[in-house]
């Protein structure tokens, strides 16, 4: 199965196409782009066993083709698995995500699961909030400009060692580095069932503070 999106913009040079999937690579001026548009798409396609192709011509436009394998499996229902207990209602979660759309999605998902959610748009903001409030868990994206999710988790381990941290990423361990190995990691894209399972597992695991 292939999905194509085509624009009639300025197009890209061959040099830009070679780097377009690199995290934080952007041709836009500082402050006008994060370089995180196509790299998560590439990570999602690779995890699904597919690929992403780009066809572009300067002055004409660009076509992005997302290729995904077809399977015979039937889609799961949105409800939680019958053997997965619901999370304790009112659990306080600090959600950290720099992408506004992903932040809105994750916040709504956590609220639907009955959790009390406070949001932060970056690691620095999250640290400031964590100094003033107590949380049962911190749920953070890994790749963020400035203070990454891994660095945030390390800081929280020092400042609030009893607070468990769950990291989320659509990248492979090779792309984000080996720093995620010491923390619980949830792969993107995630849904209610996988997120609930990850939180259950994390809360049941003693926090290692040394």
What is this entry, summarized?
The protein is an alpha/beta fold and 210 residues long. It has helices at residues 14-19, 38-47, 100-112, 123-132, 149-159, 173-176, 192-203, and strands spanning 2-7, 51-57, 61-67, 92-96, 116-120, 137-141, 165-169, 184-187.
How many strand elements? Answer: 8
Q: Encode the helix/strand succession as letters.
A: EHHEEEHEHEHEHEH
How many helices in DSSP terms? 7
Shape: globular
Going by CATH, the homologous superfamily of the largest domain would be: Response regulator
- Low-confidence parts lasting 5 or more residues at pLDDT below 50? 77-82
The CATH topology assignment of the largest domain is Rossmann fold
Describe the structure.
The protein is α/β, with parallel strands linked by helices. It folds into two domains: 2-67, Histidine kinase-like ATPase, C-terminal domain (Heat Shock Protein 90); 92-203, Rossmann fold (3-Layer(aba) Sandwich), CATH 3.40.50. Helix content is 31%, strand content 21%. It is built from seven helices and eight strands. It has helices spanning 14-19, 38-47, 100-112, 123-132, 149-159, 173-176, 192-203, and strands at 2-7, 51-57, 61-67, 92-96, 116-120, 137-141, 165-169, 184-187. The strands form two sheets. It has a five-stranded parallel β-sheet, sandwiched between helices. A three-stranded antiparallel β-sheet has the order 1-3-2, with helices on one face. β4, α3 and β5 form a beta-alpha-beta unit. α4 (123-132) runs parallel beside α5 (149-159). Mean pLDDT is 83; it is low at 77-82.
């Amino acid at each position: 199965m292939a999905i194509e999106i085509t624009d009639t913009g300025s197009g890209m040079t061959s040099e830009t196409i070679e780097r377009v999937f690199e995290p934080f690579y952007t041709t836009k001026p500082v402050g006008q782009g994060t370089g995180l548009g196509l790299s998560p798409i590439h990570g999602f396609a690779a995890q699904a066993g597919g690929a992403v192709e780009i066809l572009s011509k300067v002055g004409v436009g660009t076509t992005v083709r997302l290729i995904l394998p077809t399977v015979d499996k039937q889609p799961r229902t949105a409800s939680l698995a019958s053997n997965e207990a619901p999370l304790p209602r009112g659990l306080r979660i600090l959600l950290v995500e720099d992408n506004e759309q992903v932040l809105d999605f994750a916040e709504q998902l956590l609220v639907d699961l009955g959790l009390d959610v406070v949001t932060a748009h970056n690691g620095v903001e999250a640290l400031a909030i964590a100094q003033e409030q107590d949380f049962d868990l911190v749920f953070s994206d890994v790749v963020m400009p400035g203070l990454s999710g891994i660095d945030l988790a390390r800081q929280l381990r020092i400042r609030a060692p009893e607070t468990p941290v769950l990291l989320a990423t659509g990248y492979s361990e090779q792309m984000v580095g080996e720093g995620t190995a010491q923390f619980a990691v949830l792969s993107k894209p995630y849904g209610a069932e996988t997120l609930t399972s990850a939180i259950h597992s994390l809360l049941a695991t003693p926090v290692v503070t040394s």
